[in-house]
């Protein structure tokens, strides 16, 4: 794996760790503004840091209401598209406070390098039963 791919994966893993802490103000620095979040529940344009913070506040609140406690990353693939664009395919599991599996998750992220830092420009959640492999 190239050193740039390693940096992209390291950045994604750091984001994954911060997401679990549940503080939107610590999550949003990992996002490019504007960015787009797509899921079966809908499409969300995050046009400002404040919009991103509000989006993640609602998302984390909804997860905690379902018993969310933590996430486990089970697979990460990085595919550089250009010097400043890359895809990250991530799969994981969300677990409840009682130790029960809440859900399996899969997402394809487009990451953009801006001012020397990799940030998420889009996140697309997809059906974990339909695995995607980056070549």
What does this structure look like?
The chain is an alpha+beta fold and 135 residues long. Helices cover 30% and strands 47% of the residues. The chain has 3 helices and 6 strands, in the order ααββαββββ. The chain has a 6-stranded mixed sheet with strand order 2-1-6-5-4-3. The longest helix has 19 residues. The model has no long low-confidence stretch (mean pLDDT 95).
How many strands, which pairing sense, and closed or not: the largest β-sheet?
6 strands, mixed
Q: What does the average pLDDT come to?
A: 95
Task: Characterize the quaternary organization of these chains.
Answer: single chain
- Report helical residue fraction: 25-40%
Structural class: alpha+beta
Strand content: over 45%
- The low-confidence parts are none
* Count of alpha and pi helical runs: 3
Give the H and E element order.
HHEEHEEEE
Strand order of the largest sheet: 2-1-6-5-4-3
Q: Label the overall shape.
A: globular
Q: In whole angstroms, how far apart are the ends?
A: 13 Å
What Rg is obtained from the alpha carbons, in whole angstroms? 14 Å
> What's the count of strands?
6
Summed up, what is this model?
With 135 residues, the chain is an alpha+beta fold.
Topology:
Elements: H1 3-21, H2 24-27, E1 31-39, E2 42-46, H3 49-65, E3 68-80, E4 85-96, E5 101-114, E6 117-126
Parallel strand pairs: 1-6
Antiparallel strand pairs: 1-2, 3-4, 4-5, 5-6
Key structural traits:
135 residues; alpha+beta; six-stranded mixed sheet; single chain; 3 helices
């Amino acid at each position: 794996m190239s050193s740039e791919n390693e940096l992209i994966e390291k950045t994604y893993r750091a984001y994954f760790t911060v997401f679990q802490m549940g503080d939107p103000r610590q999550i949003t620095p990992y996002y490019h503004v504007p960015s787009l979040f797509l899921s079966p529940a809908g499409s969300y344009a995050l046009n400002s840091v404040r919009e991103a913070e509000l989006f993640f506040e609602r998302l984390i609140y909804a997860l905690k209401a379902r018993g969310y406690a933590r996430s486990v990353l089970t697979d990460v693939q990085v595919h550089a598209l250009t010097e400043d664009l890359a895809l990250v395919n991530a799969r994981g599991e969300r677990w409840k406070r009682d130790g029960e599996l809440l859900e399996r998750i899969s997402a394809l992220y487009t990451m953009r390098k801006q001012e020397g830092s990799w940030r998420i420009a889009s996140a697309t959640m997809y059906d974990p039963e339909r695995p995607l492999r980056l070549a």
